[in-house]
Amino acid sequence: MKGPQIKLLHAYPTLAGLTDDERRTILLDVAGCYSSKELRSQAKFEEVMAIYEAILWERVELGTVADPRACRKCDDHPTLAHVGQGWGQCPVCNTRRKVIAWTPDYWAKRVPGPGQVNSRVRHRLHKLWTLLVDYLPPSEKTDRYLAGIMAHAAKTKADAYLTPHAHINWSGVPQGVALSTIEALKDRLVHAVGKAA
Predict the structure, then answer these.
(1) How far apart are CA 106 and CA 49, in angstroms?
(2) Helices (H) then strands (E): counts for the chain
(3) Phi and psi for 161 in degrees, rounded to 5?
(4) Where are the beta strands (DSSP E) in the chain?
(5) 162-197 pLDDT, tens per residue?
(6) Residue 1 predicted with pLDDT over 70
(7) Integer Cα distance of 29 and 139 in angstroms
(8) Is residue 104 within 8 Å of residue 53, measured between CB atoms?
């Protein structure tokens, strides 16, 4: 895991009031390791974070830990307003600070189902697609075109990866298809760059 991920693996349990032993027990149960630095899988990282998140917000609801979005300076602890890139600002005293936990389901939504694409693979795919888009004509700069590349890589139909509104349905993209699409995008990007030179 990278530095920012390791920080999150410690920050969420701290916000949730977990002891070090409780934090390590969850790591051991979910990922089979006793230290955040030993965690190697993105999918396991997201599973662990989803568990920490669930504990945090359950305890916030019970009132046993502070809401991470609350102002720490005002006596009545009003909720900070989200002002972008993780920053919050108090509507009463205007204090600004970073908030790492804004919603109770951020990590829960990132946990892929069995065989589904994880966020790291999705990020790699999106990055390559963003680079390729610069070389495509306007009519091909669409999710439908990307779904076509996915379908070609998986030997299936593009509609299998689209929502009714023609956006990529990431919950319906298997990990294997995403990995094949990454390789296809790399090939197309090399070809497009060579052609443009």
Answers:
(1) 9
(2) 7, 3
(3) -115, 15
(4) 81-84, 87-89, 96-98
(5) 888 888 888 788 888 888 899 999 999 998 998 887
(6) no
(7) 48
(8) yes
The C-alpha atoms of residue 196 and residue 137 are separated, in whole angstroms, by 13
Q: How far is CA 165 from CA 74, 136, 161, in A?
A: 45, 22, 11
Place of tokens 């990529």: 168
Q: In this predicted structure, what is the pLDDT of residue 99?
A: 95
Q: Please name every residue paired with 116 in a beta bridge, in sequence order, or none if there are none.
A: 174
What is the predicted pLDDT for the residue at 91?
Answer: 95
Give the residue carrying structure tokens 């760059």. Answer: 193
Identify which of 59, 60, 70, 57 has the alpha carbon closest to the alpha carbon of residue 97. Answer: 70
- What is the C-alpha separation between 54 and 40, in angstroms, rounded? 22
Band of the pLDDT at 69, cuts 50, 70, 90? very high
Give the count of beta carbons closer than 10 Å to the beta carbon of residue 98: 8
* Torsion over CA: 105, 111, 116, 119 (sign): positive
Distance from C-alpha of 44 to C-alpha of 24, rounded to nearest angstrom: 14
Q: Which residues contact 25 (CB under 8 A, 6 or more apart)?
A: none
Q: Which two tokens stand for residue 102?
A: 């804004």
Contact 162, 144 (CB under 8 A): yes
Q: How much is the pLDDT for 22?
A: 92
